[in-house]
Specification:
Elements lengths: L1 H19 L4 E5 L6 H9 L6 E5 L4 H8 L7 E5 L5 H6 L4 E4 L15 H18 L4 E4 L4 H14 L8 E3 L2 H15 L10 E3 L6 E3 L10 H21 L8 H18 L6 E8 L10 E9 L2 E5 L7 H23 L1
Helix pairs in contact: 2-9, 5-6, 6-10, 7-8
Length: 335
């Protein structure tokens, strides 16, 4: 009886894997870069990925060959700009993760990246609209507050925009917040859950430390909030002109991609992650995109959560974030 049950369960699991096979092609655009390579490595481990499709201007065949030797079940292909490479990379993709673009350098803000990365993202959006219009699109390319609206406008122009399937990846802010709080409270980061809302640059990043269940002094709140908002600057400065956060961003990007796959093809219920999406939370104030906790399901962003109960300190942070966020979003929409 027990053996029969095990065989039956295995058969059911195998049947699910087979039926999901066509749904779990994952494309990484910008796969040969500082974020793209470690991100692709982490995605190679995901059992829901049957085909890892890598695209970049150069070097992707080599990255793909290297990853293809790892003994997990997904096949890996590398594509470049030549010979319809982007089309082949995107065709039938279920998830598209986009770290493409130039990194920040010392003294640069994410907004300084706008002119270069906006054009890159617009071109990728037009290609995705044509070759994988129903894919779940995960935007890492900065400035996320503007690149997500750019992508949305390109999809709208093509008539294929689905707000449930377009996400700005803000997970790094949550990962940093968990680590930074754990350091000062002498806890294991896996036990520290910090909700971070707003956007993905500077003052638009709002950590809701009052919801952690921990007590903080005013000095701790000030120091932690600033470090969470500007933690990326630490990495840019430490790398001394050679780049920005790549390894931690790859880790955070893979975490979010894994959650999308768990919810859309893995059948997992109750998957909740923070992400920058088209949101009703502050739409009445003209802020059409906002990051809060979002419940993911088979169709993508199924339920967008509000802020919950916040402190007076956090309300002031929200008040400071909204005008900046509105400006960033409008800049993207008008590009």
């Amino acid at each position: 009886m027990f053996a029969a049950t095990r065989v039956s369960a295995f058969a059911a699991k195998r049947a699910f894997s087979t039926s999901a096979a066509n749904l779990s092609k994952v494309a990484v655009l910008g796969a040969a870069g500082g974020i793209g390579q470690p991100l692709s490595l982490l995605l190679k481990e995901n059992p829901h990925v049957t085909h890892l499709s890598l695209y970049d201007i150069v070097n992707t065949p080599g990255v793909a060959a290297d990853l293809s030797h790892i003994n997990t079940n997904s096949k890996v292909t590398g594509h470049t700009g030549a010979n319809n490479g982007l089309e082949e990379a995107l065709k039938d993709a279920h998830v598209v993760v986009i770290p493409a673009g130039v990194p920040r350098k010392p003294g640069m803000t994410r907004d300084d990246l706008f002119n270069t990365n906006a054009s890159i993202v617009k071109g990728l959006a037009e290609a995705a609209a044509k070759h994988c219009p129903k894919a779940h699109i995960l935007i890492i390319s900065n400035p996320v507050n503007s690149t997500v609206p750019i992508f949305a406008e390109a999809l709208k122009k093509a008539g294929v925009f689905d707000p449930k399937r377009l996400y700005g990846v803000t997970t790094l802010d949550v990962v940093r917040a968990s680590r930074f709080v754990a350091e000062i409270k002498n806890k294991d980061p896996k036990d520290v859950k910090v909700t971070v809302v707003g956007g993905h640059s500077g003052v638009t990043i709002v950590p809701l430390l009052s919801q952690t269940g921990l007590d903080f002094t005013k000095e701790e709140l000030d120091a932690l909030t600033h470090r969470i908002q500007f933690g990326g600057d630490e990495v840019v400065k430490a790398k001394d002109g050679t780049g920005s956060a790549t390894l931690s961003m790859a880790f955070a990007g893979a975490r979010f991609a894994n959650s999308v796959l768990e919810a859309t093809v893995g059948g997992k219920k109750g998957v909740v992650e923070p992400t920058f999406v088209q949101s009703p939370v502050f739409a009445d104030k003209g802020v059409n995109y906002f990051s809060t906790l979002v419940e993911l399901g088979p169709n993508g962003a199924e339920k967008i959560h509000g802020l919950g109960e916040i402190s007076e300190y956090e309300q002031k942070l929200i008040d400071a974030a909204l005008p900046e966020l509105k400006k960033n979003i409008t800049k993207g929409e008008e590009f």
